[in-house]
Here is the input.
Amino acid sequence: MKTKKSILAIFLLAVLLSSCMTLTHVVGNGGSPTGMITERKQWYALWGLVPVNVVESKAMAGGASDYTVKSQVKFVDYVISAFTGIASFNCQTVSVQK
Here is the structure.
């Protein structure tokens, strides 16, 4: 019984203390804070080793010369990956602000 409680406590700590990861790229002068945002999901197989689809940030910018690209793992992505991770798939959100 003590082992089950320890495993549950470790699992809860891992879930509660996990954070969102963000990587930001600024192209040109960057997008305005009030600008339009386009989001797509980037999917990976084998727990992040193999990209499944290609998310083109330049195409998402629609020809804009100044934009900001954010690749981040949001809480929703963690929830999705909790279910799809069993089959080795996970996702992250790529957003372009122009």
Summary: Strands lie at 21-27, 37-45, 50-51, 67-73, 90-97. Residues 20-97 form one domain. The longest helix spans residues 2-17. The chain has one domain: 20-97.
